[in-house]
Amino acid sequence: MADLSVNFSGIRSPNPFWLASAPPTNSGAQIHRAFENGWGGAVWKTIGAPVLNVSNRYGAWRYGNEKMLAINNVELISDRPIEVNLREISDVKRAWPDRAVVVSAMVESKPVAWHDVIRRIQDTGADGIELNYGCPHGMSERGMGSAVGQVPEYCEQITRWVMDVAKIPVIVKLTPNISDIVMPARAAVAAGANALSLINTVNSIIGVDLETLEITPSIGGRGGHGGYAGPAVKPIALNMLAALGRDSIVRGSGLPISGMGGISTWRDAAEFLLLGASSLQVCTAVMHYGFRVVEDLCDGLSNWMDEKGFATIPQVVGRSLHHVTDFKDFDLSFKAIARIDQDKCIRCELCYVACNDSAHQCIDLFDKHGIASPPTAYDQSSNGKLEAISTRPTVVVREEDCVGCRLCFNVCPVENCIHMLQVPSGRPSVTWEELTQKQPEVAEDWKQMERYRKKMGIQIH
Amino acid sequence: MINKPSPHALQELLPPLTVNEAITESARCIMCFDAPCTHACPTHIDIPKFIKKISTGNLLGSARTILESNLLGATCARVCPVQELCEGACVLGSEHKPIAIGRLQRHAMDNLKGNKIDIFHPANSTGKKVAVVGAGPAGLSCAGELAKLGHSVTLYEKRELGGGLSTYGIIVLREPIEVALTEVAMIQRLGVRIEIGKEIGIDPTVADLQENFHAVFIAIGLGHTRALEIPGEEYVLDGLEYIERSKLEPSQLRVGRNVIVIGAGNTAIDCATLARRLGAERVTMIYRRTEKEMTAYPHEYDFVKREGVTFRFLVQPTKVHHENGGVKALECVRMTLGDPDCSGRPFPKPVPGATMLLRADQIVKAIGQNKTSLISTLNLKTEGGFIHINSDFETSSPGIFAGGDCIRARGSASTVMAVQDGKLAARSIHQRLVNHG
Lengths: 461, 437
Description:
The complex is a heterodimer. Chain A is of the alpha/beta class. Chain A has helices spanning about 30-35, 80-95, 110-125, 145-150, 150-165, 180-190, 235-245, 250-255, 265-275, 285-290, 295-310, 315, 350-360, 385-390, 405-410, 430-440, 445-455, and strands at about 5-10, 10-15, 15-20, 40-50, 60-65, 65-75, 100-105, 130, 170-175, 195-200, 200-205, 205-210, 215, 225-230, 255-260, 275-280, 335-340, 365, 395, 420. In chain A, about 35% of the residues lie in helices and about 20% in strands. An 8-stranded parallel β-barrel of chain A has the order 3-4-7-8-9-10-15-16, surrounded by 8 helices. Chain A has a 4-stranded antiparallel sheet with strand order 5-6-14-11, with no helix packed on it. A two-stranded antiparallel sheet of chain A has the order 1-2. In chain A, helix 1 (about 30-35) runs parallel beside helix 2. Chain B has 3 domains: about 20-115, Fumarate Reductase Iron-sulfur Protein, Chain B, domain 2 (Orthogonal Bundle); about 130-225 and about 370-435, FAD/NAD(P)-binding domain; about 235-365, FAD/NAD(P)-binding domain (3-Layer(bba) Sandwich). In chain B, the strands form 4 sheets. A 5-stranded parallel sheet of chain B has the order 3-2-1-4-15, sandwiched between helices. In chain B, strands 5-12-6-7-8 form a 5-stranded parallel sheet. Chain B has a 3-stranded antiparallel sheet with strand order 9-10-11, with no helix packed on it. In chain B, a hairpin with a 2-residue loop joins strand 9 and strand 10 (about 325-340). At the A-B interface, helix 13 and helix 14 of A face helix 1, helix 2, helix 6 and helix 16 of B.
């Protein structure tokens, strides 16, 4: 069985799953229960400046039958007195010496305020500190949270203040509400931080109530932007995680990264590990289903690692990073076409309409005699399940015209029904970078491009 | 005398979907393109379209989508054999559960009823007058479609209430009477005048209609239940009357303790269900062929068995035993299957001497309806006793169109087929009146 334990910049935990700094880590009682359920660690809900919260602080995006594809919140940092939090942190750490107890902090941008909070956290016996430079709402209006994370210079300055007094590992948590995630990460590296974590929530408005025309959720008739999290943000998080992994300065620093942003299943977890995260934080999945979700996170990850022959988490971390490149490095000679497994096809024709309306019109319908059959070809007097099923056309890709865009693959509701089949293009392997270095005119003049295409036998559909 | 039936005995079998159920179920629909459910529906309702509208909360638009193809969408949502039609063709049926199309349709239609909104309004008057004979599903559908197009429609009905079998012949477990009457009212609000107590051939005559109207649509359905032609038949109740009483005067319906239902079609199943629900201790359905040949839908057969009804196959009634005006038993003869008859099914033959006596205190027959004798008085070309029509639903007499069960020489008769007939006939009539006015 795979060893799931991690040593994250000196912070040890029996598995890589930590609760993210958020409502599930609001109190000692909650974290006790989380640890009883098997969580490897917890990042305490941010402590720091005094705050007051409001009602209707969470909004959710429902899509189809998914009740909480994403959650949005305007909850602030911990609204419990800092002394109470510190006492409970100390109690939890004493009770759970093998778990990671990390404390998130956010105070006013003054050296004395930061020095003070860091010292008080260290006195609790906590394993590490996470600097919250990410909350996009409320705290940012007071010059904290993402107001810091969005300005690399502030990020670096405050991290330096922290590192002046820090005796335990310090993690800098990055906000995704920035044009280039690499910049604040480099700032943290420059300031001597011990680790990074990402992503904090994405700035968002969840919706508008069509009855009242107010923002959802309505806080006494008002509403505004809040932090967006949950399954819907996972692709954004993966991209930012990979961006750090590909940056020579961040990667060269060797700082470990705690990954988060929509991790709901062990599959998500494995993907974050593969793109370079070496501990994982979870919030929305717990807010939806409770602490119990950790069981399958660990079990599924462990089984997958066994199947793949990974014995430890470090063996997984970053294993897919070398596959990530820019467009200019993609092989232009790579060719794939869609092929439909007729035995699995349920004849919903979703691939047909997607291809016909939005792609390259290369999926055809054929009747049982192999004759092209336009939609709604049946006689109006025809009805009944037997006629409807027996006359349902076959859906076939016209492979010579298929550009391999993969839209049909994505809309198909049946597992493994449409395959993207790699086929020889007959062209030598070349990237855009290589091509345009040798023949810059191709990128500058459409006529030259046309000439190149003709020579290579590339047809545009 | 019999067990007191539960006050819920005749409640609609399937409860309405809750809003949450409807949204969850509608979100399950994968929105097939050129969907097979739409093909399978005889009226070709754009099913993915109306289901998508439920999922987006556009219930008014959903109801409109249904009604555009089928004015009797509320009835069809309840009485259609969806397992044989839309749901039977659902692509999710092969590996999962088909979408509950019937119940979703009912959800959209019930919402409309609750809101008392009229979706359609008549177009400007064309000045053309059309007579429609028979206010069953075919007649209502045709009348409504013509009224939408601006024609002046008079609907003649011999019974007191419109709706035809939806009102009189479908047990309330499947369709409460108000559903059918709401549809009749909707057709009336489109401007259709309904004259009740009018029987074609007597008042008005066909000649009257031809004289006073630019076109006529005949949808007179079928006639009475067939005769058994056995001694004591007068003690046997007519299945359709049995159902009718359960709907219109439920307190007057006497149900036996030990009931025999003769026949194995869908009406027979409804009679047996009623008897069980209203307290009969024992209900036996008898059929002269076997379960393979029975005309009831497989899902109805399964249903009635779960209701506690028992079956005796290969049994044919020969005589009703009665005493003091009450039924005592049904004498039957055992049958064996012979060569196929004209329906393609093996013809049952009596086994000589193999008679039996089945005890019963009530016998109901539901062995199919005769073609209505009215047809012979109309001077129209017929086909096996049904009115002959061409592809435009026009009879041998120009300007007289027909549809519904009275033309159903082939295929199985159903409400939804009748609705489609009415709709298509209305299109033909409209073409005729507009182009040749």
